[in-house]
Every structure is written in C-alpha cells, then in structure tokens.
Design goal:
By secondary structure, the chain is mostly helical. The protein has 26 helices and 9 strands. Helix 22 packs antiparallel against helix 23. Keywords: Cell membrane, Membrane, Transmembrane, Transmembrane helix.
C-alpha cells in the first residue's frame, strides 16, 4: 500500500484542525472579509495610454526622452469641422464663432486651426488667412490653396477639397478639470453643429474619458454577470437552487478579496488587470462545483466529515490547477513592461489567495449547511440521479474507439497551429480601446480619411537651424513618400516674426524648452505594427545615410504608434517565450504530481492544442496578435489545464495510472465529464460576457479566452482519452474486443 505523501499528511492535519476548531476558522473567514471590505474603497482606476508601455525598454526610453523635452499631444482635443465648402463665408463664420467661444472655455490653453495661419497680401504684408470681413468663396478658396501649397502644417489641418478641417485645442493636464473642459467643448460642438457646419470632438482626452467610463461599466457589469452566471450554471448542473446557493459564498469572498488586494497594494485597476477579479471569481466557482460534485460521493458520513473529506479529495487537483494558472501569470512578472509585470504578480497572488479562501469557505459552509434536512434531501436526490454530461459524454467513448485516428489528427492540427502562431505579427492602435461601432472611433477614422493621418512619427534634431531642419524634412519626405513632414522651419518659413505668433502650447511641441532641439514630425497611416516599424527603420536608415546630416545628432524615429509597436512586439515575443516556460513548468508539475513523465507529456497535448489553434487563427486572419490576445493565450492555457488535472485526479482516485485499462479510463472520464461540462460552461459564459465589454481590450481578451475554453473542453473529452490510450501504452492496457 502506498504511503501517504507529506502533502497528504499536511492536508489531514489542516482539515483536522478545522474539524476540531471550527469556530476559530469562522473568525479567520471573518478577518478575510474585513480585509476585502477595507481594501475595496481604496481601489482606483488608471486609463493613461502610456501606462501600457512604461518599462525598461529601449523604444520606450527613446520615446520618454523626446516627450520629456517636447510637449506632446496627449492633452490635445481634436475637433473635426465639416461643411460642403469651408471656403464658403457662412461656413467660415460658423467655424470662427465656434473657435472664438472655445478658446474662452476653462482649461483650453490655445487654439490651432487653419484660421491661425497667415498669407502674404498684395502689398507684401502678412495678414490672416481668413480676414474680416470674409471674402467670397472663390477668393477664399484661392487663398487657402496658396497656403496649402507652401505649408505642410495647413495640409495636415485642412483637406484638399476644403470640405473638412481640424482644430487642435491643447487643454490643461489635470484629469478632473479635463472632464469639465471636454464636456463644455462637446456641448458647444453640439450647439454649433447645423446646416452650415458639422462639429465633432475627438483626441486623446476624449479617448481616455471613454475608456474610463468603459472601465467603470465593465467592473460592475462583468463581476455582476460572473456571479449570476456562476450561480445559474451551478444551480442547473446540480438541479437545485439550494445547492447552487452553496457555491456562492467562496467565490463572492474571493471576488471581494481580489478587488480589495488592489486597494491595499495601492495599485490601480487598468484595462489589463480588469479581468483578474472576474477570473478569480469564476475559478473559485469552478472549485466550489468540483467540491460539491465530490460531496455527492461521501455516502452516510456526518455533514462535517463529508464536507472535509470532499475538500481533501479535491484539494490536490484544485491546488495543482491554481499553481499551473499562477505559473502562467508568474511568467509575466519578469516582463520589462511594468503593467504586464504588475499583472503577473497580482494574478499569481490573487489566484492562490482565492483558492485557499474557497477551500476554507466551502469546508465551513458545507459543514454547517449539510446538517440541514433540505440540503441533505437535495444531495440525496442528486446522488440518486447524478448528472451524465449530456451529449458530451459520447466524446470519450468516440476517442477510445479510435484513439490512433484522434491522436494523429490532434498532433497534425497542433503542428499546423503552432507554425501559423509563430508567424503572427504584433498589432497595436490607440483605437483598440474602442468598439467598431463606437461614435468616437468613427470620428477618428473620419479624420484619417478626410483630412490627415492621426498616427505620428517623431524625430528629435539637435541642430535647430532652418537649413538642417529643411534637409531632415526632405530626407524623411523622400523615405516615406509623404508631403506632410513638418518642423518649426516649414511652419514659420522665412518670416522673421512668424515664430512669435505661434501659441506657446504649439511652439513647445516644435522646439525644446532650452531651444537645443527641434522636433520633425510625420503623420502616417497605421496599418500594422510591422508596417510602422518597417517605415521607421527605413527613415532611420535614410537619415543615417545622408552625408549632409553626418555631423547632426538625430534621435531614432519614435512616436506613440512606433514605440507601441516595438514594445508590444517585444512583449508578445516575451509572452511566447513565457508560454513555453509555462508549458514546461506545468509539465514538470504534472510529472511530480502524477509521478510520471509520460503522464505529463500526454496531458500537455490537449492543453497546448487549443492555444495553438486560436493563435494560428489570429495569425491567419491577418489581424496580428494584440496585447490583450497575447495575454489571453498564456492565461487561458493555465486555466484550461484545470479540467485536465481534474480528469487525472479522477484516474488517481480510481487506482492510479499503473495498470490503467480501458474500463477504468472510461469510468474516470464518465465521472469527470459532468463536472468538466459544468465548469467549461461557466468559463465560456463567464468570459463570453467579456466579449461584449465596453472596453475593447477586455472584449478581445474575453473573446480569445472563450475560444480557448471551448476548444479545451472538446480537447479534454476527445483528445485526452485518445492520447492516453495511444501514447501511454506503459500504463494503459487496451481491453480485447468483445
């Protein structure tokens, strides 16, 4: 007879302590609730776009150096104004009225628009591009064409057809004040919009406000939906509302703790970490359901003994599943990007704490509730007619009937998916935070198509003389094929006093505060991260190869889209490496737990397969893999291992792996299938709701994870028994036909 392991002995001691001192452990549970309740009010939310990229990465350091020397566009409200013809006096009067009123709104620091430009008049004197009184449409059209031909800055603010223009309004950086300023500008735009001109508000402050609003909505909606879905799935699976209610205490306390820990740690919840509380609650509900299913097999034991024995028998699989998921998060902790490292640390801590909380809570709740006659009756009724798993119960039988065919097919798909996944490129856009039907996204896209690209490349030059800047502009224009390159030299031209007419907020983004550097910028259409990096590399090579600029110190091409593409590309590469580490670590953990390397290798096949297929599908779609998708692939792998471990635990409880024959394997699958179907339904429905989140990164994370969970269920029920039968002959002994 096998001697109990040190882990098993520790379990017996802990559960024995709970049995003897039940009242003390109720106090421990009360303390956990108090910790959660005091941490939740301290929780804050962070929607700063730059937070996703801060870290010890060369691309970010270059970007940070440039943005520290020059004022950026992070606080620019961009207003899109459209009309049949903006050369028409009526349209220009409406535009002028809007801009005049806008500049007096609290928080607006300056206004930069086509009306800010000047033109040389007939007598050689500089005068406003739009004089007063406004001339007829034909005259205005000619004046605009003359300035557009000479000035890239106006080409970036007004369309060639003169039916659309932009006004840039830098606002104060105070977040609380920005909300009021943005609302005032939005209200003004709605009031001015009419037959003469259409006015829409966009820019990074509007984007941040929308993401912040979405975060608050998602925190409430996703956690509420997760709790309701968890209860509904449990009640349906257990065929009892009372038994379904027994699954709630542990997950709800785990949810409160996961949110409260953010508050106590002083960490803000971001769009990256938003799904952690939902994940903790769903996994806690899964553990509760597994414990309740095991409680059915405890026969006539006393309620306390039955509850503690059910927890003890499920503890190895629950803890192993938690450790594997925590390992998937732990690989993020080494990321040079702080928000990813933060996700890794908090994810690992929250999952371990929530699992221990559920085991403690279920031990206490089932010990007390199990003594009630109504609960005993519900358990007896369910035990008399236990769940069978419905049509999913046929999948293991199919796998055991054709193990060779299923295994070879799965391995072929695994190789194909992994090959495609390895070719996927990074994808990032600030608009990834917005849904495809969001009006703000439509405004950004309209700006791109009607006026000029909103994505910007930046090059800092140490020599700010007009001749050097003109050469840098020319080199970048040739390398990019764009006529929209600009610097302080092309904006002010040869006019001696033109620089003095620029608003301070605009001048500060063209010349550094100490006037030692000038910034050359290029708007470009962002199609993909790989395309942005290729264009930046081409410009860097052109500048480095220009002998006229050999003595000039020029920074590498940067800007938010370029920096983000490089950082996200590096993060995704790290995530792929981390996924391999997680796979190896999970395999090692299973090998130690099952005491068999063969079992570990066999168990990895059905868990890596869903990740490879979803990753390959993302690559095949041509969209590339974004930050949310890359995170979801690694996290979902760790979560998907949970079901496999519970199947292996059933085999272990049924006699172990040595001498495993077809009847015992089939029996283990029959016992595990109802719980697997229930927990997978919970994962799919719980994370499926995230696919409809207001925050698009959360939606992308939820959609990717949901796809993996669906495939993981099919893989565990079909591929796992097949590979055990076909690839594990040392411990699997096939029964003869008949």
């Amino acid at each position: 007879m096998r001697r109990p392991t040190s882990f098993a002995r520790a379990q017996v001691r802990v559960l024995g302590a709970i049995r003897r001192r039940l009242a003390w452990f109720w106090l421990v549970l009360a303390a956990l609730v108090l910790v959660a309740a005091t941490g939740i009010p301290r929780v804050t939310f962070d929607t700063a776009l730059i937070r996703f990229f801060e870290g010890d990465v060369a691309a970010f350091r270059t970007y940070d150096d440039v943005t520290n020397r020059f004022e950026g566009d992070a606080n620019d409200v961009v207003v899109l104004l459209e009309a049949g013809s903006l050369a028409d006096p009526a349209a220009l009067e409406a535009v002028s009225s809007f801009l005049l009123e806008a500049q007096f709104i609290d928080g607006v620091r300056a206004v930069w628009s086509p009306l800010s430009f000047e033109i040389t008049g007939p007598e050689g004197v500089r005068e406003p591009l739009v004089p007063f009184p406004i001339p007829d449409a034909e005259t205005m059209s000619a004046r605009i064409d003359a300035v557009r031909a000479e000035t890239p800055a106006l080409r970036r603010l007004m369309s060639e057809g003169k039916d659309a223009m932009l006004a840039v309004l830098p606002i104060t950086g105070n977040e609380a004040g920005q909300e009021a300023t943005l609302k005032a500008l939005t209200d003004l735009a709605a009031r001015v919009s009419g037959d003469a001109v259409s006015v829409r508000v966009a820019g990074y402050p509007a984007l941040r406000a929308r993401v912040s609003e979405g975060l608050m909505t998602d925190v409430i909606a996703l956690n509420l939906a997760g709790a309701l879905i968890g209860f509904a799935v449990a009640a349906l699976a257990l065929r009892s509302v009372r038994l379904g209610l027994l699954t709630l205490p542990g997950p709800l306390i785990a949810l409160m703790l996961s949110i409260g820990l953010f508050g106590h740690a002083g960490l803000a919840i971001t769009t990256v970490t938003l799904t952690l509380p939902v994940l903790a609650m769903i996994l806690a509900t899964i553990d509760s359901i597994h414990i309740l299913f095991e409680r059915l097999h405890q026969g006539a034991r006393t309620p306390r003994a039955a509850a503690l024995r059910a927890v003890r028998r499920m503890a190895p699989a629950c803890l192993a599943a938690t450790v594997t998921t925590a390992l998937a998060f732990a690989v993020f902790a080494a990321s040079p990007v702080e928000v990813i490292a933060e996700l890794g640390r908090m994810g690992a801590v929250i999952l371990v704490v929530s699992t221990l909380t559920v085991m403690l809570t279920q031990s206490l709740v089932l010990s007390v509730a199990g003594a009630r006659p109504s609960i005993r009756t519900a358990f007896a009724r369910l035990n008399a007619r236990p769940p069978r798993g419905g049509p999913f119960a046929r999948l293991p039988r199919l796998a055991l009937a054709r193990p060779r065919l299923v295994t070879l097919g799965a391995l072929g798909l695994l190789v194909l998916g992994a090959g495609l996944y390895g070719q996927a490129g990074p994808r990032y856009s600030p608009l990834d935070s917005l849904g495809p039907a969001d009006p703000l996204r439509a405004t950004f896209e309209r700006i791109e198509t009607a006026v000029a690209p909103i994505s910007m490349m930046q090059v800092a030059v140490t020599d700010a003389t007009p001749e050097v800047l003109a050469e840098v502009e020319r080199t970048i224009a040739e390398a990019s094929g764009s006529a929209l390159v600009q610097s302080i030299a092309s904006i002010t031209g040869e006019a001696a006093d033109a620089r003095d007419t620029l608003p301070e907020a605009i001048l500060a983004r063209l010349v550094s505060a100490d006037e030692s550097r000038a910034l050359v910028t290029l708007p470009f259409h962002y199609d993909s991260g790989a395309g942005a990096i290729a264009l930046a590399d081409n410009i860097d090579a052109a500048l480095a190869g220009n002998p006229a600029l050999a003595a000039v110190e020029i920074s590498p091409v940067t800007g938010l889209p370029v920096m983000a593409a490089r950082v996200v590309g590096g993060v995704l590469s790290d995530l792929q490496t981390g996924l391999l580490i997680a796979v190896a670590a999970v395999g090692g953990l299973i090998a130690l737990w099952a005491r068999s390397v063969v079992v570990a290798l066999v168990a990895l096949v059905p868990n890596v397969l869903p990740v490879a297929l979803i990753g390959g599908g993302l690559a095949l779609s041509g969209q590339g893999i974004g930050l949310a998708g890359g995170l979801a692939l690694t996290v979902a792998f760790g979560v998907a291992v949970d079901d496999t471990l519970h199947v292996l635990n059933r085999i272990r409880l049924g006699g172990g792996f040595r001498g495993l024959d077809r009847p015992r394997l089939g029996a283990a699958m029959s016992e595990a299938t109802p719980a697997l179907v229930t927990t997978s339904a919970l994962l799919v429905l719980g994370f499926g709701g995230s696919a409809f989140a207001a925050t698009q990164e959360v939606a992308a994370f939820g959609a990717t994870a949901t796809g993996i969970f669906v495939l993981a269920l099919l893989s565990d029920l079909l591929v796992l028994p097949a590979v055990v039968a076909f690839l594990g002959p040392r411990f699997y002994r096939a029964s003869p036909k008949g």
